[in-house]
Amino acid sequence: MNLTVPPLVAILFFPGGLFLLFSGLMYEWIDRKLVARFQNRIGPRLIQPFADLIKLLAKEEVVPQGVNAALFILLPVIAMAGALTAALYIPMIGLQPSYSFQGDLIVTLYLLSLMTICSGLAGANTLDRFSLVGATRTLTQLFSYEAPFLLALLGPALAASSWQINEINQFAQNNPWMILTQPIGFFVALVGLMGKLELPPFDAPEAETEIVAGAMTEYSGRGYALFRLGRNIELVIGLGLVASFYLGGVNNPVDFLLKTLGMLVFLAALQSLFARLRIDQTVGLWWRVGALLGLLQFLFLLVLR
Amino acid sequence: MLEFHTEKFIIPIGPQHPALKEPGHFEFTVDGETVTGATMRLGYVHRGIEKGVEGRNWTQAMYMLERVCGICSHVHATAFVLGVERLANVQVPPRAQAIRTLVGELERIHSHLLWLGVAAHEGGFDTLFMFSWRDRETVMDLLEELSGNRVHYSLNVIGGVKVDITDEIREHLLKGMDYLEERCKYYLNVISTDETFLGRTRGVGLMTLQQAEDLGAVGPTARASGVQRDIRIDAPYAGYSQFPVRLVTESTGDLHARFVVRIKELFESFRLIRLILANLPESELTTRVPRRIPAGETISRVEAPRGELFYYIKSNGNEYPERVKVRTPSLCNWSSVIVLAPGHKLADMPMLLSGIDPCFSCNDRMITIRHTDSNRTWSWEQLRQYGIEYYR
Question: Can you state the percent helix, strand and coil of chain B, rounding each to 5?
């Protein structure tokens, strides 16, 4: 669907900016509600993510001793900005991406990784022991899922012979769904997204029973709110990206909602199905299984072209 | 460079930490993710119950001792009344003994299901946590129907029990056992087949039979390492001589074995409850016990859900106990955690800790450092004053 909005509106209100924040919180609610229902709980009310956000924003932000204060305050802003910027290159809600150029796929992937790098740095910035262990785990996890995730998203790019998200989206719409032609890639991408968002069972970096809140332990108030919000936005972007690549592209809002929410149900089921993996198990899983499968898929594509 | 190596990176767990449901303090020295040393410190929730009991009469003491543990309250009261009845030399009617046994097993079911949930949560398996706690409500409701309370059932009295099993309750108990048995079969299947869960439990916290004996482990923790010990079998009390249980042991000694032993013990509990309900002896529920218990001393051992619970009771022929000493099973199992921790990953620590089913406040000790030059004895009043001053 082609809808032209003025650039400023696109960045600040729709489909980026405020609308993105809102949809991020909605997706968080759906995710939490679904996991709760799978676990035989009632789950949060619709306004819970909004209430959490407002509560955190209203709280005092404590800057602990021994940190670089500028970095401590800036990192959540950068992480959030990275996520918001990435949204501009994605066919959000099935609309044309606000900006598009040859190679924006790579830029988007880097912008999405910014979040993880920022939270890793944020943990390493403090003197807190839980944060330091959390930061180490966050960055270790980054190095384990990033390569397979990238490979999984390069598959469709290779098929479409383009580095441009918009073109790949167009290609996906006019061809058979790539979940059928590249099933391994789809699965690796989806599970990679879970690793990226540190969802269970890949939540070792923030395993509460071991290291409290991992890299986020020292964060309170605004900084924590921004990190959380950034992660919610990444959930929407990530789902949108996988839908437009593997599920026959997204062309209109209904299409977008159906496909992303369908995947969210699947993600929620996976989240409630497993015990938490240790960080060494996570790394082993990604490099021994994830990366190999991704490479195999890649090889197939190269040979069959 | 030398200094860098000697510097220790210590991860503190507790006294306040999301993994701990009660305060305790553990320090794990880590090298990267690998734990190289562990120490622990107790004493955050000492309540002075043993001393408090000395100021109460025998009946009041029972209610106080029931408060030692919020999970296994019945087993504490049972241990105490069995000891007191032996001192008073009274014979408790068989029906009362059978009901004590029945409730003891119901309590074991509730305790083990609670533990299953907590241990699963420590491993990040929240779905199992939620499911097992939902099913635990069944047995909690049954206990409430039976005694009027969910946690502190208080159905023991010295010389018998307060409540009787009516036909209606019997029906509900049987129905509840059928449901729980079905669920436990499912859980046993889950913990034995789920790959991610096995990855966190199999081969973790391996304790050999020799180690278990040396470290003095008790209860399911020891039985998971193949120790053939269960007070219900070795020294049957209450109704256990009439309704014998079968010993449940595993030989592997890892965390997985501790899960399996506890769940298999539940099947034994279901069987025993059905057996008792089918063969409940007809008799009075209580017998008369004098207010003043004859002078003497005795020990009383029972099998709590966590292992052997030991009571030492001394009477000087008064209305008040002279001395009551409680040794709860958690205290015997701590050393196994500290010894087994080195070499494991930091991520295994919460599960290793919860693997012994720790209960902090019931085993807590007061710690005071005695200097060699001072030979001070504290009176109760002084201790009380010290406590008030300390926390002011």
Answer: 50, 15, 35
Say yes or no to pLDDT of B154 above 50.
Answer: yes
Q: Is the peptide bond before A76 cis (omega within 30 degrees of 0)?
A: no
In a domain, B114, yes or no: yes
CATH number of residue B218's parent domain: 1.10.645.10
Interface of A to B at Cβ within 8 Å reads 38-41, 129-130, 133, 136, 200-201, 203-204, 207-212, 272-281
Comparing alpha-carbon positions, the chain A residue that sits nearest to B201 is: A275
CA-based nearest distance B253→chain A, Å: 21
Question: Min CA distance, B8 vs chain A (Å)?
Answer: 12
In a domain, B180, yes or no: yes
Q: What is the mean pLDDT of residues B25-49?
A: 85
Tell if the CB–CB gap between B33 and A280 is shorter than 8 Å: yes
Among partner residues B11, B18, B197, which is closest to A209 by beta-carbon distance? B18
Which structural domain, as residue segments, surrounds residue A127?
58-304
Q: Give residue-wise pLDDT tens across range B98-148.
A: 999 999 999 999 999 999 999 898 888 888 999 999 999 999 999 999 988
According to the model, what pLDDT value does residue B1 have?
Answer: 37
Please report whether residue B392 resides in a domain.
no
Per the structure, how many domains does chain A have?
1
- Domain membership of residue A11 (yes or no) is no
Measured between beta carbons, the chain B residues lying within 8 angstroms of A39 are 126-127, 130-131
Least confident interval from A107-121, B7-21, B198-212:
B7-21
Assess whether pLDDT exceeds 70 at residue B24: yes
Q: Does B346 sit within 8 Å of A204, measured CB to CB?
A: no
Residue B270 to residue B266: CA distance in whole angstroms: 6
| Region of poorest pLDDT, from A30-44, A69-83, A246-260 | A246-260
B186 to chain A, closest Cα gap in Å: 15
Considering only CB atoms, B17 lies closest to which of A212, A272, A276, namely A212
Instruction: Name the residue in chain A with its Cα closest to that of B9.
Output: A129
**Number of domain units in chain B:** 1
B65 within a domain of the structure (yes/no): yes
Which member of A129, A272, A275 has the closest CB to residue B123? A275
Backbone conformation region of residue A40, classed left if phi is above 0, alpha if psi is from -120 to 50, else beta: left
Domain ranges, residue B62: 49-330
Nearest chain A residue to B21, by CA: A209
ipTM (interface pTM): 0.83
Helices marked H in chain A = 7-12, 17-38, 48-58, 69-87, 104-125, 129-160, 165-174, 178-181, 183-196, 208-211, 221-246, 253-273, 279-284, 291-304
Work out the mean pLDDT of chain A and round it to a whole number.
86
Contact (CB<8Å) B124/A130: no
Residue A197: which pLDDT band, with cuts at 50, 70 and 90? confident
Cis peptide before A205 (omega within 30 of 0): no
* Helix extents (H) in B32-166: 49-54, 58-66, 73-88, 94-122, 126-147
Residue A47 counted as domain residue: no
Is the per-residue pLDDT at B336 higher than 70?
yes
Q: What is the pLDDT of residues A49-85, one digit of tens each?
A: 999 999 999 988 888 888 888 999 899 999 998 888 8
